[in-house]
Amino acid sequence: MSSSSWLAIAIALAAANLPFINERLFGFIPLKSAPGEPPNKSGWLRVLELIVLYFVVGVIAYLLESRIGNVFVQVKEFYMITVPLFVVLAFPGFVMRYLRKRKY
């Protein structure tokens, strides 16, 4: 595999975990919260962010592929594989956010 392929995989891994790592929208837009309370992103907002980041990673991967040469036509099977793969890449962030035991 070329370095562009590894770069696309690394970007996908980072983008898939971004919604679960921080409380900011897309990593840099602060969310409003009640005075004195820390911001808290809802689960639905994290899912929406994950969907948007899937398409952002898709555009980046398309640009990297077009830089190498001919771009392959993507049919429904491509999306039927890449959507679950992107969700699987988000698993470490999900575990850290929701399944890890925390000290209080």
Descriptive report:
- The protein has helices at 3-21, 43-68, 76-89, 91-99.
- With 104 residues, it is mostly helical.
- Helix 1 runs antiparallel to helix 2 and helix 1 (3-21) runs parallel beside helix 4.
- The protein starts with a helix and ends in a 5-residue tail after the last helix.
- The mean pLDDT is 86.
Which helices and strands occur, and which strands form pairs?
Blueprint: H1 3-21, H2 43-68, H3 76-89, H4 91-99
Helix pairs in contact: 1-2, 1-4
Short synopsis of the structure:
By secondary structure, this protein is mainly α. Helices cover 65% and strands 0% of the residues. It has helices at 3-21, 43-68, 76-89, 91-99.
Q: Report how far the terminal alpha carbons are from each other.
A: 45 Å
- Average pLDDT level: 86
Give the oligomeric state: single chain
> Could you say which structural class the secondary elements and strand pairing correspond to?
mainly alpha
Largest sheet: number of strands, sense, barrel closure: none
Q: How many beta-strand runs? A: 0
Number of helices: 4
What tags apply to this protein structure?
104 residues; mainly alpha
